[in-house]
Q: What sequence folds into this?
């Protein structure tokens, strides 16, 4: 065969392309069995959301009920550091004026002003924490959950500066010694030096269970579902009740709604 | 050229030893922090950044201010700055070194630092800050070293240095702009959410940096045979005066917007800083000291005779530097977290180990600065 | 040829060599016993075919890559099930799957890690977050 420079270069180019495609061929060739897959029981959604029915909570809940908080913190081995300064919390209560600063007014019903509001990570659609994280250690999953990757977090706390809801806690010291509840052997603890927050129980959704707090509330005040699914429970509630969200004016598009 | 760092007077070695002591103390405190976690600092869940990040922010400004000698010399051919550019560039090297160290000591997981490179994230300003700061560090080392080396050999510096010098000018602006963007783009923090943040940063940088540079130039003049030149110092003090006026003006703008609009969230941090909020007034004396020093410095600097009187100019420079440090290296970062997202006031004050670590980093920076200035002045003495 | 300052350079070199070879001198004659990995947990003993997710040789050399790949799939991609070559499905979890069989962390993980000089609890630091199985001492 007569080979001139031109045809040699063409052939070389093709070969190089072929080499580049090798991993693709490799991947396709091996795929008689899926290497990894979703648990068939897993709950799937496009944008998980929560509706907190505070009205029902105040009316029906026994006074001082903390079932949801306890369930959450036990499930996720959340430590009880015992100081306001270094507190770690995933789900907790705040008075109205603190949960919704700037919305309080002098003459609100005393119930609203005095009763506690459940607060947690809002799993914002436009999450500032995700935007600022320099390592994608906090990131958005396809199902809308704002997730933490504890293995990757460098502990710069930029996400804490970015979160308008104070939903993020840093482990200022080793949290292991401060887990006062019985250890949940199926979920890890954290190490000092990383940031943590509510994960909408992704580990439970992955095996077909609803979030621990929703399950724990005996009065049915917490509703969980897919915001993108018009037939979901949360969408039905949102269509029939007036709800508010925390600091919607910041454009973060929170996924936690409140009925008052 | 490096050998000139090893041959010096007794005083030079004593200074280095003194700095080493502080570095050692800081390092010991850092080992303590590494072992116990950031719990040993005064930071907490509400004020989650403290003096480390505040020092970092302030020092980015000092680093950026090298452009105030480089730009007039290379773009406007103001010859008197020729002798002083190397001092500006080496000050930038030392400052960026401190900046990077302050970031590292602030990390909860410093061993994972390289994750920033392993998982590059262009939507994070911190990623860009890492790029511009490291770039600026290398630019200044390359430029300063090559220009000085050429001067020592009595030859023109290599032709490839010139484009780098031109690049370093916008680059200096970029490091402080990007650092301002770290704060100015956060929806959560009203005090930082201001379009003039980068402008404020640059103006305060261009007064605090030259103030330090003037003080250093006088020190160099006193202890070595190298004279940076009175004219350069006077020109620098004019730059500093304008930057200081603009800087104070910008602080005034923040006050106007906050208090004329009467939007509570915009007023809260300023009220906390200058009057105290809900009975918490830890920073109030510091901020009034800032105000007093700023006014004092302005009164001094607006008098044209000050810049010709070494003693008065030095006092004015100390006032400028310290007032800007209080404003930016203390108040600005901390007050961004006060009140917290729940509209509560949780105060911050640094702990002893935290201050020791910060002092250790400052000592490290001055150690680098001393060595670099020793090399520069030795070369200057030789060629003179 | 003459070496300048030989009286300083040569002793300096000797001290330097002595220092960098210090670990060898220090450990001389103190051979650490080779690791004995134990596979005899109750669960493994009951298995008809004693087979991990990958062949033994691959697990020995590549378990850290596999674990890293698993954590990426679970944490970042949301996949939780791993399908092995024989079609068997596993829950990709160190804490909930691996230690079901290898419930003897001190006899299994630590044996090699300690032998290799990886300090307990530092590198690899799996167990500072993941909860180690309870073992009878």
A:
């Amino acid at each position: 065969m007569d080979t001139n420079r031109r045809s040699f270069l063409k052939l070389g180019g093709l070969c190089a392309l072929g080499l580049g495609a090798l991993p693709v061929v490799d991947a396709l060739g091996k795929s008689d069995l899926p290497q990894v897959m979703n648990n068939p029981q897993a709950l799937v959604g496009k944008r998980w959301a929560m509706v907190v029915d505070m009205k029902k909570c105040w009316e029906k809940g026994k006074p001082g009920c903390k079932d949801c908080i306890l369930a959450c913190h036990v499930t996720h081995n959340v430590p009880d550091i015992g100081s306001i300064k270094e507190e770690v919390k995933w789900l907790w209560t705040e008075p109205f004026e603190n949960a919704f600063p700037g919305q309080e007014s002098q003459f609100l019903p005393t119930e609203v002003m005095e009763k506690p509001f459940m607060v947690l990570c809002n799993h914002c659609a436009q999450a500032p924490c995700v935007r600022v994280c320099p390592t994608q250690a906090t990131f958005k999953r396809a199902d809308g959950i704002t997730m933490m990757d504890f293995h990757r977090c460098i502990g710069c706390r930029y996400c804490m500066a970015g979160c308008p809801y104070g939903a993020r806690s840093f482990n200022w010291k080793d949290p292991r010694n401060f887990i006062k509840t019985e250890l949940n052997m199926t979920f890890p603890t954290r190490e000092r030096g990383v940031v943590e927050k509510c994960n909408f129980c992704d580990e439970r959704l992955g095996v077909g269970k609803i979030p621990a707090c929703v399950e724990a509330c005996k009065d049915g005040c917490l509703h969980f579902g897919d915001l993108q699914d018009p037939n979901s429970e949360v969408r039905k509630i949102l269509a029939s009740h007036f709800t508010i969200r925390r600091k919607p004016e910041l454009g973060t598009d929170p996924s936690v709604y409140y009925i008052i | 050229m490096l050998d000139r760092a090893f041959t010096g007077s007794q005083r030079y070695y004593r200074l280095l030893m003194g700095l080493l002591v502080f570095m050692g103390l800081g390092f010991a405190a850092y080992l303590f922090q590494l072992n116990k976690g950031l719990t040993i600092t005064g930071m907490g869940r509400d004020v989650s950044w403290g003096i480390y990040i505040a020092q970092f922010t302030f020092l980015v400004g000092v680093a950026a201010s090298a452009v105030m000698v480089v730009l007039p010399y290379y773009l406007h051919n103001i010859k008197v700055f020729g002798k002083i550019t190397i001092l500006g560039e080496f000050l930038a090297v030392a400052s960026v070194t401190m900046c990077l160290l302050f970031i590292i000591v602030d990390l909860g997981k410093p061993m994972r630092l390289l994750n920033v490179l392993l998982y590059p994230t262009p939507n994070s300003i911190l990623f860009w800050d890492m790029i511009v700061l490291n770039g600026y560090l290398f630019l200044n080392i390359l430029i300063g070293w090559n220009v000085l080396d050429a001067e020592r050999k009595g030859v023109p510096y290599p032709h490839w240095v010139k484009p780098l010098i031109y690049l370093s000018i916008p680059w200096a602006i970029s490091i402080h702009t990007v650092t301002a963007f770290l704060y100015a783009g956060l929806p959560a923090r009203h005090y930082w959410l201001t379009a003039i943040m980068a402008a404020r940063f640059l103006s305060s940088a261009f007064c605090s940096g030259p103030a330090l540079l003037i003080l250093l130039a006088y020190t160099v003049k006193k202890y070595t045979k190298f004279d940076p030149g009175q004219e350069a110092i006077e020109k620098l003090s004019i730059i500093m005066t304008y930057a200081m006026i603009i800087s104070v003006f910008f602080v005034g703008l923040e006050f106007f917007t906050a208090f004329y609009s009467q939007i509570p969230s915009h007023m809260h941090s300023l009220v906390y800083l200058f009057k105290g909020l809900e009975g918490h007034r830890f920073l109030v004396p510091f901020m009034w000291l800032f105000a007093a020093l700023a006014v004092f410095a302005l009164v001094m600097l607006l008098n044209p005779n000050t810049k010709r009187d070494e003693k008065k100019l030095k006092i004015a420079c100390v006032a400028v530097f310290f007032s800007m440090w209080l404003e930016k290296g203390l108040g600005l970062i901390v007050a961004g977290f006060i009140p917290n997202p729940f509209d509560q006031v949780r105060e911050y004050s640094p702990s002893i180990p935290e201050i020791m670590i910060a002092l250790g980093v400052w000592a490290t920076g001055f150690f680098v600065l001393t060595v670099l200035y020793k090399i520069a002045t030795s070369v200057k003495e030789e060629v003179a | 040829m003459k070496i300048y300052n030989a009286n300083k350079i040569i002793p300096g070199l000797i001290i330097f060599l002595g220092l960098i070879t210090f670990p060898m001198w220090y450990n001389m004659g103190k051979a650490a016993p080779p690791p004995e990995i134990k596979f005899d947990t109750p669960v493994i003993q009951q298995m008809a075919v004693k087979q991990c997710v990958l062949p033994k040789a691959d697990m020995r050399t590549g378990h850290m890559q596999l674990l890293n790949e698993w954590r990426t799939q679970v944490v970042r991609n949301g996949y939780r099930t791993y399908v092995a070559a024989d079609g068997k499905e596993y829950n990709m979890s160190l804490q909930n799957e691996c230690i079901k069989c290898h419930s003897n962390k001190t006899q299994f993980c630590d044996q090699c890690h300690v032998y290799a000089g990886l300090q307990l609890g530092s590198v690899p630091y799996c167990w500072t977050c993941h909860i180690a199985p309870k073992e009878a001492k």
